[in-house]
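[stage:ingest] chain + small molecule (adenosine-5'-diphosphate)
[stage:ingest] validated
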Amino acid sequence: MAGEAASALGLSMVVLAEHPDDAACAVASEVVIGTPRKLDDLRALAERCQVITFDHEQVNLDYVAQLSREGAIVRPGADALHMAVDKGHMRSVLVEAGLPVPAHVVIENGPASFDALRAFGAEHGWPMVVKTTQGGYDGKGVWQLGEASEAADLLEALAQAGPLLLEELVPLDAELAVMVARRPNGERVTWPAVETAQVGGVCREVLVPGRLDPSVTEAATALGGQVADLAGAVGVMAVELFWSKGQLLVNEVATRPHNSGHWTIEGAVTSQFENHLRAVLDLPLGLTVPQYPHVASVNVFGGPAGHPLESLLPRALAFDGAHVHLYGKETRPGRKLGHVTVCGAEAETVRARAWGAALALGSPHPPGLDLPDGVTT
Ligand code: ADP
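[stage:predict] done
[stage:export] tokens:
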């Protein structure tokens, strides 16, 4: 999706990919085969580029810092990336700035960890949430512990996972996400906060503006901007928030284009991908105003039947206004394969059409999430 935005601006995009058939290679002007886990591969990429940026945060911060020292322009830089790479660091930066986060503690997973976990549970109650501080995404790296007796197995399984983040289980009234685009000089624009629905730690739908009171959405939008400034983000940054008992809490950040911002491709004057490129290239940022009263974006996952998506596409495209984005990945049960966005005048209509098209693509109905009226699996 960044490649499409690059092409419209007449930019050429060089992709560092592990395999020539990785989805991004199809839209890249040039491909460097390699891995971000090897400094020499990153150097080979740097030789071909004016600016290096990222579409995930599985990044070695030492290598990023080294590339900068060698003269490469890397945006965001290692400091901003650190917030996204390490949840423990992110929490401590936010706490130091006085921003609201769930009650938490970071523990080393060692001989004293069971006692630390029991003490945290005694103070903040059970169940609690346990997260790896690094390497998690889409709910991988997040567990709920019902009681202390369940802890030993989890701690053993995570013996090599590094420090752990223990958190109170926040009673969620809603989840929101804010996308911010920020230039190297700190100039920034923010898209309005959106409501997200997560099932099993994975984002299923994004509703714009969502169902929350506008005062909450506005406060969330402002908080997102504060977090991006604090991180010193360059490019786009996603800030994921909890709405709980009348309070906003910062849950998670990502310093890259994000699933919760895919709606901006058709739904906003400027997409997150275009503004990411503008920001990392230090170009004027585009307007973030929504183009429609309502936008719904629903993620498409591989279903148990594993039908090839091409055969299902005609049914999905029959839904009025359905913008189908398929990421060119092979279908596997549970794998995120794409998304569908629908824009329009009525919240229920756009949501129903987006879900209709996603289900037509074989995406399963996630348990616990209410489908719009009239939509059947
Ligand atoms: P990831 O980095 O894998 O996306 P997150 O920390 O964002 O992990 O957690 C994924 C989802 O798990 C959240 O969107 C939320 O639905 C749920 N979750 C995470 N932490 C908590 C918490 N402390 N209380 C309640 N739910 C949580």
